[in-house]
Amino acid sequence: MKFNIDKKEENILCATAKLVSINSVRDLETREENAPFGKGIRRAMDCFTSIAKGWGFRVGDVDGYAVYAEIGPENNEHIGVLGHLDVVEAGDLNLWHSDPFHLDRRNGMLYGRGVNDDKGPLIAALWAARAVYETSEMNLPIRVIAGGAEETTWECMTHYFEHHPQPVMGFSPDGNFPIVNGEMGMIHLRLIFPKEPDFKAKSEVQFSYNCSDITINGLRTKSNKVLSRNPQRSDHAIFNWINQYGFGGSLVLRTIHDLIQPDYHGKGLGIDSFHEEMGNCNVCILSLNSQDDDTVLDLDIRYPISTSEEIIINQLIKLGESYQFEVMPLKSRKPLYVASDHPLIKALKDAYQTVMHEEAHCITKGGASYARVMSAGVAFGATFEGEDPQPHMPNEKMPVASLMKATDIYIESLKTLSSSQ
């Protein structure tokens, strides 16, 4: 497919359709040399580099962990755009109104797994970089980097940066507009309680959503399912169970009732912390399960730069002495914060305002993007305020008009960034 400056929508939708058609869910059973995350992600990488070569980019492959497409003058210093080609599973196909691995266009909307997270925005940024090369003076090349493990381990970025330098600055098209200059720190951890003879709990073990379906001692309650970074959007199945049946003599339910249920910000746990720009901590229960020798409660904690993982873990260890639980950290990511007066922020604000004719403000999100792995990077689109693209959910979607507007914003931003000395 050849690049055509006058066929923006046609180019972008055709390329996005090719990527969406590939089931690029992590599959370690099919991993092999140069395909560490499985054949599906390998196919998506090959598709991406084929599109990029057709549009005139220099391309590279980092052992199948990531690929990149670069355009402009050849220089070790470059502007970075970091996105990803892996997607989450489609889930229950009966809940989809169309094939998740076919780009379906209906009533001005695009549907398909990855159309918003992150294949559509990644292609928009790639096209924008080519448009800048076509129309502007560039002092620095633009490198569009596509990883293969954003939805899982992020080892793709670790491997990439072991072999390649950091961008001078850049963004990830895997968030929201106007500008996400703050991303909450994240801790997944497990509270381990002693086994209680008359207590049996069962729920799905997962790390992306709230616990929305729980069975305790044969009694089941449900709630709406939300991403774990937004616990305030649900009433939560475990809270509903306690409200309906009480907690009796159960140690783990009393702990939830006393320490977690009062609010979503960790006040009961003593870990709440507020930052003027980033906001409050959030605490979400992921699962509760009885095991052979103990009962385990998994939590997702998001926190601003006004506190730290060490402070939070130490406080929970202290509480564990009173409530008889042990703390086992499972996974963590440090927070991201780029000051609003940074040159990167100014360039992105100007680009957004040029296209949208409205003020660009900075926001903080609970989610994580590849912006965290850059020394100077933020998440920048492609979801506009007021939109709900349903990433990770059935019928993931993206308005065609929004994808085109995002492309125009990326053109303006990359034009400014690549012209810097």
UniProtKB/TrEMBL annotation:
Entry cofactors: Zn(2+)
BP-aspect Gene Ontology terms: L-arginine biosynthetic process
Top-level lineage group: Bacteria
Pfam families membership: Peptidase_M20
InterPro entries for this protein: ArgE/DapE_CS (IPR001261), Bact_exopeptidase_dim_dom (IPR036264), Peptidase_M20 (IPR002933), Peptidase_M20A (IPR050072)
Keywords, ordered alphabetically: Hydrolase, Metal-binding, Zinc
GO function terms (MF aspect): acetylornithine deacetylase activity; metal ion binding
Matches recorded under PANTHER family: ACETYLORNITHINE DEACETYLASE, N-ACETYL-L-CITRULLINE DEACETYLASE
Name by which UniProt lists this protein: M20/M25/M40 family metallo-hydrolase
Species: Erysipelothrix inopinata
